[in-house]
Design goal:
By secondary structure, this protein is α/β, with parallel strands linked by helices. It has one domain: Rossmann fold (3-Layer(aba) Sandwich). Helix content is 39%, strand content 25%. The strands form two sheets. A six-stranded mixed beta sheet has the order 6-7-8-3-9-10, with helices on both faces. Strands 2-1-4-5 form a four-stranded antiparallel beta sheet, covered by helices on one side. A hairpin with a 2-residue loop joins strand 1 and strand 2. Helix 5 packs parallel to helix 6. It starts with a strand and ends with a helix. Bound molecules: adenosine-5'-triphosphate.
């Protein structure tokens, strides 16, 4: 369990400021959400914090250590990312065994077979799935494999970028419940992007509302229903989401 502190994160692409001095703190074992309109910079925060993007200023501390001071191997042991699209994130010609064995091999970790089996059990898949290929799996099963891959190095922090939005509604709840169970069991700290306030309500302790590269307000989960948001944009976003949900019911 490690806290995550983002300090003054700023990035520009081609003269446009996409993140503007973003700072936030996520406590050990907390699930913290990032919401906001499309293009507000939510995914960019995760990409910078995991050093997928390099040209940013500011810092990210995980358990007090800067991600900039970690070598890539060390960073993989501390933090892992789960992406939105389980179809794109698994190589079509790599079996589940290959997907799960690779990080273990790179990091020189032994007892591979036992660890791979345990990772599948942890995400609720039969161990026989080690010999399947992505096209032999459903979308939800693929996302479970992507989560198993993220877990296998036993990281402290998971960055979740819309982990269920590419999935069928019925499967979304299964994956969210899985992520919640794993957090309870393993004490992960989650930083999670979602455009869906119902998902934030289900998963997160607190969330930040973002607009054009700035954090407008940080709120507890309860603010989704109790109307305590102060910033007009946060009120507007929450109001629009509730109206949409009522209309959809
Ligand atoms: N590598 C890049 N090069 C140029 N512009 C980029 C790059 N990555 C992100 N951007 C721009 O930064 C802005 C923020 O993108 P980001 O993906 O973080 O938004 P988001 O809030 O996650 O949106 P969405 O909810 O649609 O996924 C967008 O305008 C995007 O076009």
């Amino acid at each position: 369990m490690k806290p995550v502190v983002i300090q003054d994160m700023t990035i520009r692409f081609g003269g446009t400021t996409v993140l503007n001095d973003v700072s936030l703190s996520v406590a050990s074992g907390e699930c913290f959400g990032l919401v906001g309109e499309s293009g507000s910079g939510k995914s960019t925060i995760l990409r910078c914090a995991s050093m997928l993007y390099k040209g940013w200023t500011g810092d990210v501390l995980i358990g007090g250590q800067s991600v900039r001071s970690m070598d890539p191997m060390e960073r993989c042991r501390v933090l892992q990312m789960v992406f939105q699209d389980p179809y794109g994130s698994l190589h079509p010609r790599h079996s589940v065994r290959t997907v799960l064995a690779e990080p273990l091999r790179i990091h020189g970790i032994g007892e591979q077979e036992a660890r791979m089996r345990q990772a599948l059990i942890d995400v609720g898949l039969p161990v026989e799935f080690l010999d399947r290929y992505p096209h032999q799996l459903s979308g939800g099963q693929r996302q479970r494999v992507a989560i198993a891959r993220a877990l296998i190095l036993e990281p402290d922090v998971l960055f979740l970028d819309e982990p269920t939005s590419a999935l069928d509604v019925s499967v979304q709840a299964e994956i969210l419940n899985l992520l919640q169970r794993l957090r309870d069991e393993k004490g992960f700290t989650y930083l999670m992007v979602s455009h869906d306030l119902a998902v934030i309500d289900h998963m997160c302790d607190r969330f930040a509302v973002m607009k054009t590269g700035d954090i407008v307000e940080v709120l507890p989960r309860d603010a989704i229903l109790d109307g305590t948001a102060k910033a007009p944009y946060a009120q507007e976003l929450i109001g629009a989401s509730l109206t949409y949900e009522q209309a959809a019911m």
